[in-house]
Amino acid sequence: MSKPVIEVRVRAIVATSSDYAIFLGNEEKVFVILVDPGVGAAIMMAIAGTLKERPLTHDLLANTLQALGARTERVVVNDLKDDTYFARLILNVENEFQHKIVEIDARPSDCIALAARQRAPIYVNVDVWNEVEDMTEELQKLEKKDTEESGGGFA
User: Fold this and answer.
1) What is the domain extent for residue 38?
2) Number of domains in the chain
3) Cβ(26)–Cβ(15) under 8 Å?
4) Dihedrals φ, ψ of 47, to 5°?
5) Is the residue at 19 inside a domain?
6) In a domain, 115, yes or no
7) Do residues 22 and 10 make contact, with C-beta atoms less than 8 angstroms apart?
């Protein structure tokens, strides 16, 4: 990572009428990445540790990486252009033939799904961090509403 980064975590996942809102952030700030329903559900299941009868796409990729001696070292949301986020999947490859770090361009949603599956850290490039709108108040409102309506259970 050549530019400074800030570590974040998935703070919440909210289903909307057409997609999922992934709230990423730390104690300082929270921002939202919208993802398609399939990946949003996969991220929720990975975070919750939900066991599935058969591997889903992100499970398959994680299992394949493991079989090849690679694991997700970290993910970095590294750019934001025209309301589209970009990310890099950083893999640590260590097997009988090699040891190296590999960077792959990927959708942030896929990176977050793999990071959640493999318990890898998530980072945001400081330039992106400074550009995104702080959604902390909105997250707090959603958490308060969820607590009042159901007594908890906010993803």
Assistant:
1) 5-150
2) 1
3) no
4) -65, -40
5) yes
6) yes
7) yes
Per-residue pLDDT of the chain (155 residues; tens, 9 = 90+): 468 999 999 999 999 999 999 999 999 999 999 999 999 999 999 999 888 888 888 888 998 998 888 999 999 999 999 999 999 999 999 888 889 999 999 999 999 999 999 999 999 999 999 999 999 999 999 888 877 776 555 55
Whole-model pTM: value is 0.88
| CATH number (domain holding residue 42) | 3.10.690.10
Task: Select from 24, 20, 27, 29 the least CA-distant residue to 11.
Answer: 24
Give Cα 117 distance to the centre of its chain.
10
Q: Quick one: which of 37, 24, 40 has its CA closest to 77?
A: 24
CA distance 19 to 34: 7
Determine, yes or no, domain membership for 155: no
